[in-house]
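Bit of a strange request maybe. I'm writing a small parser for structure token strings and I need a real example to test against, not something I typed by hand. Could someone generate the tokens for this chain?
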Amino acid sequence: MKRFKKLLSLVTMFVMLLCFSVPAFAATDTTDKSALTVDEYISFLQKESPEDLAKFTALSPDQQQEFIDLLLDPATYNTTNNENKNVSRSTKYTTNLPNSSPMLSSSTDWDAWGTQTVSIFGISILEYRIEVGYRVSNGTVTQILYNDAYVVRNLNPMVQTDTISSSAYISGNKAIARGVFYYKLGPINDMSVQIGNIYGELIGYPNGDTSISYWRD
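Reply from user aminoacidic:
Good idea to test on real output. This should exercise your parser:
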């Protein structure tokens, strides 16, 4: 009977999360505000990120409670519907200064990366990163040198997320790198539910320009 109640609770939270239709990130249901307390989050930060602990404890008690409420609110991670001034979402992308290949004087090697970050009260909560290195010869992308995709940070203890796959290829004279990340709710009562995947795509152009996009299925 207890196991049935746990399963029913998880299924209920899963259904409510789907109703928010979050495009890039999702979080836990807010119907149970006792799922995480301020003191519990302080203990979490003491182990995971002392630097961010200092930022969190610098907030007023009311701000700390609002932080927790926002952390557990799926709308916080919605890139289109959340207008709370204490929540910010940012996408960054860049390329390093080109280095000429010593073997091919007409070739240039580029290192590109792009991230997407969700922050609450200026504290970065979730951040994903995709990287790609590629070679350009006479204005043409000719080779993928390396690629990677990983979770830079996850400061939501109610969420599990990590890389599923990383790939890169050349198409249309562009270096395209992709990353896929799983996203799980829990553990709650020693159980967790995968609620979808997050996808990212980084594009590197022959002139070193870069673009990045993230979405969720």
